[in-house]
Write a structure and sequence with these properties.
globular; 16 strands; ten-stranded mixed β-sheet; disordered C terminus; 12 helices; three-stranded antiparallel β-sheet; 341 residues
């Protein structure tokens, strides 16, 4: 079964090359059904780290003799890399690469713009049962997504909107801040390490709210903020992801800081790094504060795109490939008169 998406810049339908697709379908098919205990071991923290080490540091690392050919096969643009290509001599170094994002990922000068946190494929949705975008139950369970003892955040985002950004192994793996504002809360939630491959997502019910994840809650209704209300950025680990390294930098990648409550985050800056693999960012918005970009909505509703999500969930769900720091939504109203709390 193929999986297609829409390439935003060219507005063309592309076929995705799904890494280890046969293995993932076996894990989430036969193994999950017939050996559930082994399946839980494979998707646990320890095994995920071991698989990541073997994949990115051992087996593949030994065979990597032609860097340019490997990167071309993965669709990686050497011209974007900050470090000299000759230093990127293992898959891990390639997948943790830095890019000159200030040049190759320009950010629009719009106060109320929400930007993509990653080079990724995005789907958008709504928590409102009255909305045509109500697809939350397909990817995560709302009540468990934000973790236990977080009722105040559940109330804040109820009937709001969300965007799911799916990173694949060849992508640039730094996450950037989608909005500007003050950090209100920051915490980790323990969980599994399920794959973000579409085959795994459509097989396992609400996987994104079962994986280990980091939640950053940002108040954007402050001086210098994006003025789109309270926003939650949820970084979700996946199979072969060793963890999420918080490394917020306002100037390129210099002087990285740990994210914590009370600090102000500028929009479009590097915030964290996924250790190699595929992974997912979920961004939550309060009701009535943003409008998603028209092209994302139009692409998502294109039933002619052969998406595994469309075939499995019975509604048109075609992803759009977006670049980090590109506009994905805009504020419903501007907030130039806001004051930092």
């Amino acid at each position: 079964m193929i999986h297609e998406y829409v390439e935003r810049e060219m507005n063309e339908v592309k076929k995705e090359c799904l890494y280890s697709d046969a293995v993932i379908r076996f894990l989430y098919g036969s193994l999950r059904e017939h050996a559930p205990t082994l399946f839980r071991v494979v998707t646990g923290s320890r095994m995920s780290s071991i698989l990541g080490f073997l994949n990115y540091d051992q087996f593949l690392g030994r065979r990597l003799t032609n860097i340019g050919r490997f990167m071309k096969f993965c669709g990686i643009d050497l011209g974007e890399c900050l470090d000299h290509p000759g230093t990127l001599d293992t898959p891990r170094k390639i997948f943790e690469r830095k890019i000159r994002y200030w040049e190759c990922r320009p950010m629009p000068n719009e106060e109320g713009a929400v930007v993509s946190p990653a080079d990724s494929k995005v789907l958008v949705g709504s928590f409102s049962q009255a909305s045509t975008l109500c697809v939350k139950g397909k990817f995560f369970d709302y009540e468990e997504l934000l973790g236990p003892q977080k009722c105040k955040w559940l109330d804040r985002f109820r009937d709001g909107d969300f965007a799911v950004f799916r990173l694949t192994p060849e992508k640039y793996h730094y996450n950037h801040t989608p909005v500007a504002g003050m950090v209100e809360d920051f915490y980790e939630i323990e969980g599994a390490y399920h794959s973000c491959n579409p085959a795994a997502v459509v097989t396992l019910v609400t996987p994104y709210s079962k994986n280990k994840r980091v939640v950053t809650v940002i108040d954007t209704d402050v001086l210098g903020g994006t003025w789109v209300g309270v926003v939650a950025m949820i970084e979700v680990v996946a199979l072969m992801i060793g963890g999420i390294r918080q490394c917020y930098s306002e100037s390129q990648y210099h002087k990285p800081l740990s994210v914590r409550p009370g600090i102000f985050l500028q929009k479009g800056c590097p915030k964290s790094l996924y250790i190699p693999g595929s992974s997912t960012d979920i961004v939550l918005f309060q009701r009535g504060r943003i409008n998603f970009s028209d092209d994302l909505m139009r692409n998502q509703e294109n039933s002619r795109v052969e998406s595994r999500f469309t075939k499995s969930f019975g509604i048109a769900l075609a992803e759009t490939n977006v670049k980090v720091r590109s506009v994905v939504a805009r504020a419903v109203r501007a907030g130039r008169q806001s004051r930092r709390k």
